[in-house]
Amino acid sequence: xxxxxxxxxxxxxxxxxxxxxxxxxxxTRGRPEVVQVVSQRGDENEVLQVAAAVEALSExxxxxxxxxxxxxxxxxxxxxxxxxxxxPGGGVHARVDGRAVRVGSEGWLRAGGIETxxxxxxxxxxxxxxxxxxxxxxxxxxxxxxxLADQVRPDAVAAIxxxxxxxxxxxxxxxxxxxxxxxxxxxxxxxxxRIVAEVAPGDKxxxxxxxxxxxxxxxxxxDGVNDAPALAQADLGVAMGTxxxxxxxxxxxxxxxxxxxxAPTAIALSRATMRIIRxxxxxxxxYNVLLIPVAAGIxxxxxxxxxxxxxxxxAMALSSVSVVTNSLRLRRFPVTNxxxx
Length: 341
Prior knowledge:
By secondary structure, the chain is an alpha/beta fold. It is built from 14 helices and 13 strands.
């Protein structure tokens, strides 16, 4: 379940000492679900309908969750949506039947001059539960918010533990609010001081570059379009196979089955491969250094010994057999199932 693009990636993986992980789609399943709809006006269906009308034109995982919830609740709108636009790391906006609608983060709404105080307590409670909040504003007024939760991958805890066993530092980069990122980090075992939240998509690559400037060799694990610059910036990019094509294109390693626990397996496999390569070099050079001088007659003046050509050929064959046999030990390397249960 691990696709390694070239030999250089296998060599680089041996030397990394820091692992940076995206949250949504990497540590979590990447399929959030709506938990609650809160309306300042008391009409939850209005909030859900308006948000779904705009989010239907977005490709974000949170947008898909809102549209699914509207469909299951039977409130899918039949409104005219025009002037759609999106702000990376902020949200989406459009005109719905002539009304200006914004759906996105609280900070983005506030930056647009929209007051959010009335719903701040509901948002804070959602964050404490590890949920994300998509705020909804109509004609410059915040009318409600939709809270969403994304489950942590079943293998995330084991993957982080394995990274630590390999002596690697783990960092979490997330565009979510601090409380949400802290909640996920605590669940999987990432130290609070290594959780960086509210990171704009364009700043993820800068965060990786900062770690590299500190002398670290960094592997970045991500799945989305927003992760592609960071994946390209890292010493080694690892893409989740269930993510976007651009993430895979920017990475040297792809986890085809979408299992996070395959990422530390790739690092361990790299180390084992390079260790065996060095052993093979010792065997090969050892045979040559010892037997070629004998075959050339270096011992003949002193002992009268020479190397029979048949024995020389057998020794050369034995050298190849020892190298191949040693390499075949990798067949016993513990592997990960390629697909998630």
